Amino acid sequence: MNIQPFSKTYDGVRVLSFPGLDLEPGKIYAVIGANGSGKSTFAKILAGVLPADRKGRIRDDAAVGYLPQKHYAFRMSTRRNLLLSTNEEARAAELMDALQIRHLEKKRADRLSGGETARMALARLMMKRYDTVILDEPTAAMDMETTAAAEKLILDYTRQTGCTLILVTHSLQQARRIADEVLFFHKGVLKETGTKEQVLFHPSQPETRQFLDFYGR
Amino acid sequence: MGSALQKALALILSADAELLNILSVTARMSLQSSLIALLLGVPLGIWLGACRFPGRGALVVVNRTLMGMPPVVCGLLFYMLFSGVGPFRHMKLLFTVQIMVMAQVVLITPIVVGNMETYVAGIAPAVRETAKGLGLGGIKTFALLCNECVYPIISAYLLAFARSIAEVGAVSMVGGAISWKTNVMTTAIMQYTNRGNFSLGIALGMILLAVSLFVNIVISLVQRRLSR
Ligand SMILES: Nc1ncnc2c1ncn2[C@@H]1O[C@H](COP(=O)(O)OP(=O)(O)O)[C@@H](O)[C@H]1O
Ligand SMILES: [Mg+2]
Fold first, then answer.
1. Fold for domain A2-74+129-215?
2. Which tens digits make up the pLDDT trace of A114-127?
3. Sheet containing A132-136: which strands, arranged edge to edge?
4. Domain B2-227 of CATH type 3.90.1640.30
5. Chain A contact for B99 (CB, 8 A cutoff)
6. pTM
7. A192: which of A65, A96, B33, B171 lies 20 to 30 Å off by Cα?
């Protein structure tokens, strides 16, 4: 997928400027950076739910799946939430098993706990094949065990569908575990990008080094 | 005082004919006006809450103003339009239940609109993002949004009904509180109190309070569901 350069300004303040990038299919791109560095804004603009400053296309017309940072559970059962985009019951069962929410399939999704909602939301998105999948901190509300299950699912999905996966994460460990490439945002600017080894282990920018030092290499 | 209360209870228990007529006129008026307000207010409120367009903010402010409109002002407006000097005098609607319903629709539709707008504006961005993220189309997204609104609709309806049944300023002006025709609970209470006949007033007051209690219990149950 090809991303054109774009920027985003709120009330006269530029919160994001992006120089453009080519993304390879089948790869996992981790988007890292401090709170407020523009990660979610980047995800929203790519997903097409937020307009950039410049009108016109930002990326090619691919089928994009997007999981917002705030998960919304529709007022219906967990199972019916999963079946919103496609009717494949078998796939829904498989996903609920993988994320250990099978026992909640008949429960109203808007009454799930935070971690359960996060699992439901990830499963709901993985129901369908997309060319590009954007996940905004999908495991932030999950415990370690479910995070491991979610990461395995994300890896399997990417391998099976060959999609490009953009994973916004606050966890460097997560980026280390499953990313191929890393995008580091600092104060709304893409400071550094490259393979996981380059960015996380041999950073070239002082801001990246500072960030990594602070969060523990 | 005590004997008035006894008489009031006796009136209720004996199903006094005038009392029953007042109750039936009240029910007819309030059910009609609250249902019409619901049919008009729900689509309008969802539209205002979900769509972003120039002038939306102004419409919300206008609606808030209408929500606070004093009933007598609404009554005055309808009185002028339909009385002997008004443009609609030939319709001969003054002092009928129909015009009471019309005046009440103007009073309570904004309540439905305002409640729906507030709720929908709160959830619409998340619903839209989530649905778009799943690749769902516009019609399915709208259906999902409406499905999220079931409890807010019930609660908005009950609020409108409660306001309608307790309202006195507009209905007394345009209805005229004519016995056996346009007299409703609130206007009858005023009328009988003025005449010093407290027992019918007390009987009506007790019924009105009981209805209001019931409606508000249901509202609080619905809202407890809403707040999850
Ligand atoms: N709707 C908005 N209005 C104004 N400022 C916003 C809005 N959304 C985000 N911002 C600002 O944009 C910056 C980037 O936010 P965000 O992309 O959510 O950061 P991150 O996801 O990396 O924590 C922050 O400074 C935030 O305050
Ligand atoms: Mg964020």
1. Rossmann fold (3.40.50)
2. 999 999 999 999 99
3. A6-10, A13-18, A189-195, A181-186, A28-32, A164-168, A132-136, A64-67
4. no
5. no
6. 0.88
7. A65
